[in-house]
């Protein structure tokens, strides 16, 4: 098998393919189970019609394949999160950052820390870097649902799917987090109501997630509303949505300082401590303002803040060098632009962000006018999502969802283009499965890595033996495709799980034989197959043909044995 090349950007070069890159290039054994996704959305979570809403409005919200991540890189990501948290806790850091932040950022948020921080990383075999921090990161509930809807198509990987209980535990953790925000703000009575707030929420791309949050809160006994910022009133020191008194606002606005006219009531309520706002303007100023990345990658400034050397080492190695764009450095930055990415201080979702090698002079002049940082370019990871030729490779970034310095969940976003956009077929949010610590390619534990094995399937009918592509069988079994050429026929299906050596079949690890019946339209008829009384047993002549197709005539006899 030829290993598809992973994407390379800027000056970064993938010099070697490590074990995790092998998985991200060659493992197609897990995919999104759309039936399980519908079940999770509409039955387990109880939001009828949500699956159809997602299919209509955002069909590329969920990726078709997972992403693999080494335990070493996962640990390193956690270390970066913890290092940043330790620096943000320093009074000297807070004083320096808040001195240049909007005035509202200096208002005491009353103890709330801020829910769903998103630490976004680019991670590949030979590159690693935190590219930004978001303080109202979306997608957490969507990823909890996604964990319930993964399907393994071979035995080798089946045990590595997360149990459905994992998603349930994450949802419980989410509820504990919101209740903790309430109690940290000095309230003794239980939390009773939450408002999920964004500008024109029903028009937002992630509106389905708002519905999931609303249902989650309601399942736990809370009143929950979804509303825009103008839908509230402040009366007698209480924030109201109609006749519902709002205890806590889950803030999804990108008006981070509540400076827009539409946010006036929320701003007044926040400054009057009439509700708990999470995340809040101070959290954005301390974490998500891109200027902070320039501070966190400046050894001199870190030293002046008395940041311990070990923490400095983690930050300087884990965050690509970032600097504020200033006119006096224009010549150097323009010269080096192909190795840089330019982002606005308070940007989000890749808006108004530019790769240096794509800059025009017009855009460059806008950047020089102020409000931008320049960050060293770090190559994203790459995920091959199909084994068909030519191979389709999507980029991915990784997001650590974190609360109070603790990583709660890790997710990936698959995409094409400059930034994540949820507009790429096969792309979207993807589950992340941790593999072994990186080492030389080929040193992969067989208990985790399916690469040394593969499935081969064959349809047997009389003297006819024909291979059936694994991807096609999966589509047929799920009812996503039909095979007109097999209409009204029945076959013995032989499934050989083969151990590989140097990419070639070496021995049979396991085999199964079963009936496969097609209806008059060429769709699999499982009921008809179960109704057949006779055992699905190939003849010796059929076995000989299968062995020859797999191993070749010379090796068919010696290799065609089941191995432990």
In short:
By secondary structure, the chain is an alpha+beta fold. Helices cover 32% and strands 25% of the residues. Among the domains are: 192-278, Rossmann fold, CATH 3.40.50.20; 453-559, no CATH class.
Write a concise keyword list for the protein shown above.
564 residues; alpha+beta; Rossmann fold; 32% helix; disordered N terminus; disordered C terminus
Written overview of the protein:
The structure is a single chain. 32% of the residues lie in helices and 25% in strands. It is an alpha+beta fold. Among the domains are: 87 residues, 3-Layer(aba) Sandwich (Rossmann fold), CATH 3.40.50; 107 residues, no CATH class. The strands form six sheets. Strands 2, 3, 4, 17, 18, 19 and 20 form a seven-stranded mixed β-sheet that branches. The chain has a four-stranded parallel β-sheet with strand order 7-6-11-12, covered by helices on one side. The chain has a four-stranded antiparallel β-sheet with strand order 13-16-14-15. Strand 23 and strand 24 form a beta hairpin. Helix 4 packs across helix 14 and helix 6 runs antiparallel to helix 8. The N terminus and C terminus are likely disordered.
Quaternary: single chain
Task: State the shape.
Answer: globular
Q: How many β-strand stretches?
A: 24
Rg estimate, integer Å: 27 Å
How is the topology of this model organized?
Layout: H1 19-26, E1 30-32, H2 34-44, H3 50-57, E2 67-70, H4 71-88, H5 91-99, E3 117-124, E4 127-134, H6 140-146, E5 150-152, H7 155-158, H8 164-184, E6 193-197, H9 207-219, E7 223-227, E8 233-235, E9 238-241, E10 244-246, E11 248-251, H10 264-271, E12 276-278, H11 281-288, H12 291-296, H13 299-304, H14 309-318, E13 322-324, H15 330-335, E14 340-344, E15 354-355, H16 361-368, E16 372-376, E17 381-384, E18 393-403, E19 406-415, E20 428-435, E21 453-461, E22 464-468, H17 470-477, E23 490-501, E24 504-517, H18 526-530, H19 540-551, H20 556-559
Parallel strand pairs: 2-20, 6-7, 6-11, 11-12
Antiparallel strand pairs: 1-5, 3-4, 3-18, 8-9, 9-10, 13-16, 14-15, 14-16, 17-18, 18-19, 19-20, 21-22, 21-23, 23-24
Helix pairs in contact: 4-14, 6-8
